[in-house]
Model the fold of this input.
Amino acid sequence: MKYYLIVGEASGDLHASHLMSALKAEDPQADFRFFGGDLMSAVGGKMVKHYKELAYMGFIPVLLHLRTIFANMKRCKEDIVAWNPDVVILVDYPGFNLKIAKFVHEKTQIPVYYFISPKIWAWKEYRIKNIKRDVDELFSILPFEIEFFEGKHQYPIHYVGNPTMDEVTAYQEAHPANFQEFITENGLEDKPIIALLAGSRKQEIKDNLPDMLKAASAFSEYQLVLAGAPSISLEYYKQYVGQVEVRIIFGQTYRLLQNAEAALVTSGTATLETALFRIPQVVCYHTPIGKVISFLRRHILKVKFISLVNLIADREVVKELVADTMTVGNMRLELKNILEDAEYKKTMLAGYEYVAERLGSGGAPKKAAHEMLRILKK
Done:
């Protein structure tokens, strides 16, 4: 069968690559074409556009790149029609993908599957109308989405487990932790590490990294190591590092987490990855006009939390410093708690165990691929 996949960022590239591998195992004749990344290319098929050409975040960056965004969308629609796949598989990235879903539904007979659903339970819940109308099958990776989609909106979905659980478990099995080897190979000092995960988009890094560095640099007995995002250049990071002593390492985020004592993490998949590596963390997410955003968060957002860890647990496992609460002082205080208060750390780690339990057993890509093939053949 012919599969057309669309992702818009690094995490989507990772999840989609594993789904593609699982689809190939189920369907040896699988033929892939995609808007994706290097990990998907390694599995095979034809990459039409790299996600680096799609990932614009924030009102101003989107406005400045509207022509490019529209051109990419036009190219994607035309390419789908010309290739005529057996199914279009969308991976997260709702701003772009829901528009593609609408087009495919209206203009073709190609089924639309969504793997890793849009997070409409947090923001823009009205999009459920679009999903019901334009998405034939939705494959969820978060357990609380079952109640949201099926209970609240009477839209049946497939919960397949969480691929991050598979990815972290597979990494740990294949690469046992070796701190001395890690620091030697990367030219690091022989002292404990505070990991910094400042996001995968330029706007996130610009907004979050400077204050994260100020906060973490107060702990002189630790060294700071920043996980470089694959789509961001070293030169871009250097603009925001200043005189702070920090090492930037690309392509080793899991290895960094495996060898860290604590982490400052922007919201997103990285918070869940950090939890599954059992590394104490502080969730930090800066937004412009912080007090206004905090007000909107309290009165408009549909959820109590922004981090996947707390959302899955349905309680505060990790501290979330967001908008006006993300200050250097607050980050330092929370870092001090997780580094120096053994009971505080123990409670957080117990929360991580509960999160892992709620996610269930592994095998998400395999389960999703099997179910997709079953439905397509039917």
Q: What stands out?
A: The chain is about 50% helix and 15% strand. Confidence is low (pLDDT under 50) at residues 289-295. The longest helix spans residues 66-83. The first strand starts at residue 2 and ends at 6.
